[in-house]
Structures are given as structure tokens and as C-alpha cells.
Amino acid sequence: xxxxxxxxxxxxxxxxxxxxxxxxxxxxxxxxxxxxxxxxxxxxxxxxxxxxxxxxxxxxxxxxxxxxxxxxxxxxxxxxxxxxxxxxxxxxxxxxxxxxxxx
Length: 103
Description:
The protein is α+β, with helices and mostly antiparallel strands and 103 residues long. The protein has one domain. Helix content is 44%, strand content 12%. The protein has four helices and four strands, in the order H-H-E-E-H-E-E-H. It has helices at 2-8, 15-25, 42-51, 82-98, and strands at 36-37, 40-41, 60-63, 76-79. The strands form two sheets. It has a two-stranded antiparallel sheet with strand order 1-2. The chain has a two-stranded antiparallel ribbon with strand order 3-4. The protein is elongated and about 60 Å long. The chain starts with a helix and ends in a 5-residue tail after the last helix.
């Protein structure tokens, strides 16, 4: 549908219109999901700014404090793949459950 909208009304979704729509939706949810900025996860945008490059599709952004709404650059770590992200969580779980070394 958005392709049809772009074709029929190419000037409709200006930056100002998108900002107005975004602001009208902010704060109406239950804050249980990732924050988005113009349809993109904000933590991915912050990670790209922190790294100074675009993220690859397979890279995973991890929130160090576990709060998925805390998008501070100091709270974000990028893993090269979901596999490595899962391995990190497995080691972390083993550390806290077994009292071992997380490294």
C-alpha cells in the first residue's frame, strides 16, 4: 500500500508529516516493546551512530542493562550474529546459575 501512496501522492509523507505522526503515537502504548523512530528500531539507529556505519542485517543489538527502552549508546553492544548473541546469554545464564566465570 505504501508504494501506491508514494505514487499517487509523492509529497504527502514529508519529514514534518512523519515527525507529526510519530509524535502523535508516542506514549500511547504499554512500553513493552522496542521504541521505533520512523519505523526503525531506535536501538539500531543509535548503534549505527555509535559505530559510524550502517548495521548489517544479521547484526544484533544487545541492551547491556536488559532494559530494551534504554537506548543510551553506553547501554548498547552489537553482536555480529544471533548465534554469538545467544552464546553470550548462555554464558551469562551459566555464570549466574552456576556461580562460574562468564568469560
